[in-house]
Specification:
558 residues; 14 strands; Glutaredoxin; alpha+beta; RNA binding; eight-stranded mixed β-sheet; 20 helices
Length: 558
C-alpha cells in the first residue's frame, strides 16, 4: 500500500519566496553576462585585461546591491538560511544552484587568468620564509607616513603605550568597507579591548593619489591611526595574497553590496590610471605583542621547552630567535585574507589580546576575564541608541550599564550605589563625580543667593528712587501753590500723573477742584458750551468767541 501512496502535491511559493527566486535569478543572469564578456576580452589579451580591463568586473557590485535592495536582507548568510528553509521548493533550489554555479565559474575564470599571468610575467618573489606566529616585526623599520598629516612616523610611535595591537592591512585601491566593518565590530566590545589595553592601526599601500583620497574618506569614519607603507614593505614581508582571484572575487563584490545596502557604508569608486597587474595585493590582520610582552612570551616558551626537552625533544617546533633590538614585537596571530571579504574571526583577535594582557599582568587568563566582566559595566561607553526614557523619573535609563542619564546636567547616576558619574573618553570609563556634583550644587546655591540678594537690593533702590521722586514732585507742587500759580500747578499735576497711577492724587484733588471752579466763574455759562463745541471738532468757535478774559491763558489741553 505504501508504494502506491501518492506523493503530496508540490508546494507553491509564497510572496517572499517568489521575490527571492526572481531577484536571485536576475542577479545570476547579470553576472553570467558580464563573465562571458570578460572571457572574450581576456582571450584577446590576458595581460592587458588583467592590468586595465579587469576593474570593470567591479561593476558587478551593482547586481548584488540590486538583489539585496529587493530582498531587504542584511547579508548572504541570511539568504543562505532562507534557501535552507525552502529546500522543499524546487524553484528555490534551482535559484540557489544558479547563483552558486555562476560564482564558481567566476572564480574559475579568475584563477585561470592568474595562471596565464604567472606564465607570461615574473612577479616579485615573496620573502624567503613565510612569517607566522612567533616571528617578529620591527616597529622602527620601515618608516611609514601618517595619513592625517602626511608626516613620517613609525609603528613604535603609534603603538608604544599598548600591551598588544591589531594591525589591519588594507590596500588603498579597494573600498574601505572591510576596515569600517571591523571598526564597528570592535566598538561593540570596546570596553573589553580597552581593559586589555589593545591598540589599533590601519596600514595601507598603493599610489599616493589613491592613498590620499582613500585615507581622507576613511578618517571621517574612525579615529584609529592610518599609516601609509610608501615602500610597500609589508605586502611581501608578510606574504599577503595577490592576483585577480583575490582582487575581484565574487565574495568581495557580494560583501561590498550588502555593506552598502544594509549598513549604509558608502563604496567609493576605484582609482583610475592604475596598473592592476602591479597593485594586486589584498591584506590581512595581525596581532602583535609589545616589545616588553614579547620578551616575556619568549621567556615563557623557553621555560616550557626546558621542562619538556628530555621527553618531547623531537616534537618541539622551531622557536625563532628573539631579536637583539628592544623594539621588536612578536606576532601572536596572523590572518592572510583570500579577498576583501575574508576577515579574521573576532574571537581569534580577542584571544590573542587576552593572552598578551594576562602575561603582562602575571595572571591567568581566567582571572583577567573575571576582572573584565566585573568592570565591564563602568567601562562600556554610552550610546544614545540604548537609552530608554522613564516618565516617572524624567531620566534616561541605560540597561547595559544600569545607569540613569540626566540630559540637563550630563551626569550618569547609579541608584544602587547613590553615585554620580561622568564619562571620560581619555580613561574610557565612568568616573565617580559625587564631590564634583556637590561642589557644583554649592556653587549653584551660592549664585542663587547672590541673585536673590541683588534682586532685593535692586527692589529697595527702586522703592527709594520712587519715594524720592514723589517727594520732589510734592515739593515742586507746593512751591507752585505758594507762588499762587494755579494753572501751572494744574498743568504739572495732570501732565506728570495719570489719575489711576498718581501717588499723591489726594494732595492735588482740592487744588484741581478750585481751578475748575474759578474757570467756571470766569467764563460764565458759555464756558461749558464752548468746551463741548471744541470737543466736537470746531476750534474756530473758540477763537471767534474766547470764553476767557484778555490776558488769561486757557488750561493745558483746551
Amino acid at each position: 500500500m505504501s508504494l502506491n501512496r501518492r506523493r503530496p502535491p508540490p508546494r507553491e511559493p509564497n510572496d517572499e519566496e517568489k521575490n527571492v527566486i526572481v531577484a536571485v535569478r536576475h542577479c545570476a543572469r547579470e553576472l553570467d553576462d558580464m563573465l562571458q564578456g570578460a572571457r572574450r576580452k581576456a582571450q584577446v589579451d590576458a595581460k592587458l585585461f588583467a592590468a586595465k580591463t579587469a576593474p570593470s568586473l567591479f561593476r558587478a557590485v551593482e547586481f548584488y546591491t540590486d538583489m539585496y535592495a529587493k530582498l531587504r536582507m542584511k547579508s548572504r548568510m541570511a539568504l543562505t538560511r532562507l534557501f535552507q528553509r525552502s529546500r522543499d521548493l524546487d524553484e528555490m533550489v534551482d535559484a540557489q544552484e544558479a547563483i552558486d554555479e555562476t560564482e564558481e565559474c567566476w572564480k574559475g575564470f579568475l584563477v585561470n587568468l592568474d595562471t596565464d599571468m604567472k606564465s607570461t610575467t615574473s612577479q616579485r618573489p615573496l620573502s624567503s620564509s613565510v612569517k607566522g606566529v612567533g616571528d617578529y616585526i620591527e616597529l622602527l623599520d620601515p618608516r611609514l607616513i601618517d595619513c592625517s598629516n602626511f608626516e613620517e612616523c613609525s609603528l613604535h610611535q603609534a603603538l608604544s603605550r599598548f600591551t598588544s595591537s591589531l594591525l589591519i592591512f588594507h590596500p588603498a585601491y579597494l573600498p574601505d568597507v572591510a576596515v569600517r566593518s571591523r571598526s564597528s565590530e570592535i566598538s561593540k566590545v570596546a570596553a573589553d579591548f580597552y581593559q586589555l589595553n589593545v591598540g589599533f592601526v590601519v596600514i595601507t599601500w598603493g599610489p599616493e593619489s589613491a592613498v590620499r583620497v582613500w585615507s581622507k574618506h576613511l578618517l571621517k569614519h574612525l579615529k584609529w591611526p592610518v599609516l601609509w607603507d610608501r615602500d610597500n614593505f609589508f605586502t611581501s614581508f608578510l606574504s599577503f595574497k595577490r592576483g585577480c582571484a583575490s582582487l575581484w572575487a565574487s565574495q568581495m563584490l557580494d560583501f561590498c553590496a550588502y555593506q552598502s545596502t544594509t549598513y549604509k557604508r558608502s563604496v567609493q569608486p576605484l582609482p583610475t590610471d592604475i596598473d592592476w597587474s602591479t597593485w594586486n595585493w589584498v591584506g590581512g590582520e595581525v596581532v602583535i605583542a609589545s616589545p616588553a610582552v614579547s620578551r616575556m612570551l619568549y621567556k615563557r616558551e623557553l621555560d616550557a621547552r626546558s621542562q619538556h626537552a628530555s621527553e618531547e625533544k623531537s616534537d618541539l617546533s622551531f622557536l625563532p630567535k628573539l631579536p637583539d633590538t628592544g623594539s621588536s614585537s612578536r606576532i601572536c596571530f596572523i590572518h592572510r585574507a583570500d579577498n576583501l571579504a575574508d576577515m579574521a574571526p573576532p574571537g581569534s583577535i580577542y584571544q590573542a589580546s587576552l593572552v598578551c594582557y594576562a602575561i603582562s599582568q602575571n595572571k591567568s587568563e581566567s582571572e583577567v576575564v573575571e576582572e573584565i566582566r566585573t568592570h565591564r559595566r563602568l567601562a562600556t561607553p554610552p550610546e544614545s541608541g540604548r537609552l530608554q526614557y522613564e516618565d516617572a523619573t524624567g531620566l534616561y535609563y541605560d540597561p547595559e550599564t544600569e545607569l540613569h542619564y540626566d540630559s540637563r546636567t550630563g551626569y550618569f547616576y547609579d541608584a544602587a550605589r547613590r553615585t554620580y558619574y561622568y564619562w571620560s573618553a581619555e580613561s574610557h570609563r565612568y568616573v565617580p563625580a559625587n564631590e564634583l556634583v556637590r561642589v557644583q550644587q554649592a556653587e549653584a546655591h551660592r549664585l542663587r543667593l547672590e541673585a536673590a540678594q541683588q534682586a532685593a537690593l535692586r527692589a529697595v533702590r527702586e522703592q527709594e528712587a520712587a519715594r524720592a521722586a514723589g517727594a520732589r514732585v510734592a515739593a515742586q507742587l507746593a512751591a507752585l501753590r505758594a507762588e499762587k500759580d494755579e494753572y501751572a500747578s494744574y498743568a504739572y499735576a495732570t501732565c506728570l500723573f495719570e489719575p489711576a497711577d498718581d501717588p499723591i492724587a489726594a494732595v492735588h484733588s482740592s487744588s484741581s477742584a478750585n481751578i475748575q471752579e474759578s474757570l467756571r466763574l470766569l467764563g460764565g455759562g458759555t464756558a461749558s458750551n464752548s468746551v463741548s463745541v471744541a470737543a466736537t471738532g470746531a476750534p474756530s468757535t473758540i477763537h471767534d468767541n474766547p470764553p476767557y478774559p484778555p490776558g488769561c491763558p486757557p488750561p493745558p489741553g483746551v
